[in-house]
Amino acid sequence: MSWVLIPQGSHFPITNLPFGVFSSPGRDQRIGVAIGEQILDVRAADEAGLLPDLSGALRLDTLDGFLAAGRVYWRGVRSRIAQLLSEPAHEPVVSGMLVAQEDATMHLPFTVADFVDFYASEQHATNLGKMFRPDSAALLPNWKHLPVGYHGRAGTVVVSGTDVRRPQGQRKAPDASEPTFGPSARLDFEAEVGFVVGTGAPGPVSTADFAEHVFGVCLVNDWSARDIQAWEYVPLGPFLGKSFATSISPWIVSLDALIDARTDGPAQDPTPLPYLRSDRRWSLDLALEVTLNGETISRPPFASVYWSADQQLAHMTVNGASLRTGDLFASGTVSGDSPEQRGSLIELSWGGKEPITLTDGSSRSFLLDGDTLTISATAPGVDGTRIGFGSVSGTIQPSI
Amino acid sequence: MSWVLIPQGSHFPITNLPFGVFSSPGRDQRIGVAIGEQILDVRAADEAGLLPDLSGALRLDTLDGFLAAGRVYWRGVRSRIAQLLSEPAHEPVVSGMLVAQEDATMHLPFTVADFVDFYASEQHATNLGKMFRPDSAALLPNWKHLPVGYHGRAGTVVVSGTDVRRPQGQRKAPDASEPTFGPSARLDFEAEVGFVVGTGAPGPVSTADFAEHVFGVCLVNDWSARDIQAWEYVPLGPFLGKSFATSISPWIVSLDALIDARTDGPAQDPTPLPYLRSDRRWSLDLALEVTLNGETISRPPFASVYWSADQQLAHMTVNGASLRTGDLFASGTVSGDSPEQRGSLIELSWGGKEPITLTDGSSRSFLLDGDTLTISATAPGVDGTRIGFGSVSGTIQPSI
User: Fold this and answer.
1) What residues are paired with A375 via a beta bridge?
2) Are B376 and B234 contained in the same domain?
3) Which of A4, A113, A309, B382 has the most CB within a 10 Å radius?
């Protein structure tokens, strides 16, 4: 129990305590921790001597130093914050360090080092396979042997709330002889879950060491221009169809807050190679919800994703690639078994052939200028609570 | 003419003056400029008040601040250094700021922000198309309409001289039913040319603005594990087959030093879309040379590359993607028309079917443990001189 008022259904009870970076009138950019409808000003708490200091890591304007400090420190800081926000004796001092979330501006919480995007949902990969290769097996031969992934553009990862300008580029209609240039006509979202690396490593990280390196989890919208992507992506993969923007939620939920959200992932057949095995995978029972202009259009279940995050991390580094603080890797689009659980418009509208209808009577195959797309999620927290991720949201601006 | 002794054939006459980062006994990591067989200690020259200071950009331990300072500053510093190294009046003071290259250790010269790798050589793309898709057209339909590219792993870009450990990973023989795990048996190099972004931009950069944003040029070896790549790359492109290491040369040659190396690129048919056109492309007449254990195995001509660097930059940002100081984009493997000009072993040995023979009697289809692969290049400098890039070199270490 916190002495802070926590409204019923809040994403941020005392069992969550996610980390982010905010500013507000009178407070320049700094680290904060969400609690109910408030933010604890972590810098202020540290300056008051209330937190375990480590070379000023808690006084920076990003989470970078905190992330680099490692798991023992993450746990020490978070458990001390839980104490400060629950023991009534601290209320007189600490209540002055709370800022209303509605008065705060959230910032990109950490410097994104490398950004990797996986393709780990079997339902999503199957849906796209059926649409793009109707005459072949929906899944490619490698898909159940390794978590397929690729590197995205780290420099265009933006925080929730940042407007997204419709990209221009080359696209070619299937029956056209030449490509044309112009605004994307098939702008889409992808509902994903991202993992934030705290502690780097010089080489391979085993599935067993996942929690030593990954600090926490956020929501990701991997905006996609399907027409640009379709024309460019052979043979080297997605490039400009993705690189214009990727949005992340501002609050990073720690693995420690998600310990009761762990769940058995889908059974894996064939049995993965040894480096991809673990006694207990880091599958997580996150319930995602996607809204378009406030109306729910999908509820993707993250627990259905085939390749878990520990398997993704082990794969990403098994070739000896080093890992850095700030590396971000995302699951790829999360889609469930049923049509209402699909995590992108290209799936929801089946390639544009079956537009979805909104309650205002309009229909969508892809996103229109002015549309606001929001992804949120909740998960089981500890002590029987339910915790949330807040949301990642973006509004489409027209091409210049 | 410099008062520094410049041996005949040196890569670093006074018309070059490339920038890098070095350390040497008694000097911690700092910026330097190559001249003959020496390095000018730029920090020392700046501390002595000999250079135009800008917020201490020249006293950092990377080029990051210098790169961010922009073209006017790049030119001012370089022309002042040319003056210091040519006017005899400066010799008494400045000669004490020279360090022998043989006594120096070179470091990664800048923080790599995003790394993009193109596929811009028609001969290379054609060779690979013939090998991998023998029954189809060698070039895919998009290839002559846009510079195909993808994002690589920025965190594993290393400086020349760094050993490269043979990666492990999944690979599947064409006739095998299941993949196996182990050290790559088809480890390759790719001889490429890289472009280093100095001044960032919030969105599209036109071909005309290329030189406002790109500071200079280096050599790149995009080490590639062909067996890992072949199994993983469908449909999202290369990932672990590339991400274990990418080596760059330590000296960044400024565009100003390469003004007389500009050359007409290959004629482009069909005419590219307007955003990819320029009055005069930034094609460069660089003569690359590849040696394996000291023996020349290829001489790829960079002037033959189809898509020029200004076209690559315009394409990379046309979707609105922002550009950052430290972004690195590379040409992709440079291969010329003749077999002796191929820029990778998979081409030189034609997929392993025609191993090359070295003078020691051994043969190579791909790289062996202990092999040292070096790429160097020269180009026309100003005033009829010839300048060079030094080299990028790496030695293969066995898998752990």
Assistant:
1) A290, A392
2) yes
3) A309
DSSP letter string, A70-99: -HHHHHHHHHHHHHHHH-GGGHHHHGGGEE
Domain boundary among B81, B107, B133: B107
The answer to whether position B10 is within a domain reads no
Whether residue B318 is found in the same domain as residue B297: yes
Residue-wise pLDDT for A218-257, tens only, equals: 999 999 999 999 999 999 999 999 999 999 999 999 999 9
Tell me which residue in B151, B238, B245 faces A153 most closely, judged by beta carbons.
Answer: B151
How many independent structural domains does chain A possess?
2
Residues B187-221: tens digit of each pLDDT: 999 999 999 999 999 999 999 999 999 999 999 99
CATH number of the structural domain spanning residue A35: 2.30.30.230
In A, which residues are within 8 Å of B170 by CB distance?
145-146, 273
Whether the predicted pLDDT of B330 surpasses 90: yes
Say whether B244 and A155 touch across the interface (CB within 8 A): no
Residues A318 and A341 in one domain: yes
Query: CA triplet A146, A148, A154: central angle to 5 degrees?
Result: 135
Active site residue A124: yes
| Residue B204 Cα, gap to closest chain A Cα (Å) | 10
Quick one: B133 and B246 in the same domain? yes
Contact B317, B201 (CB under 8 A): yes
In B232-251, the residues whose Cβ lies within 8 Å of chain A are 232-241, 243-245
CATH number of the domain within which A220 lies: 3.90.850.10
ipTM of the complex: 0.97
Q: Which domain holds residue A221?
A: 115-397
Residues constituting chain B: 400
Q: How far is CA A188 from CA A223, A305, A359, in A?
A: 6, 20, 20
**Cross-chain residue pair B153–A231, CB shorter than 8 Å:** no
Within 13 A of B72's CA, how many CA atoms are on the CB side? Answer: 2
Domain boundary, last residue among A70, A105, A140: A105
Convert the pLDDT of each residue in B259-286 to its tens digit: 999 999 999 999 999 999 998 999 999 9
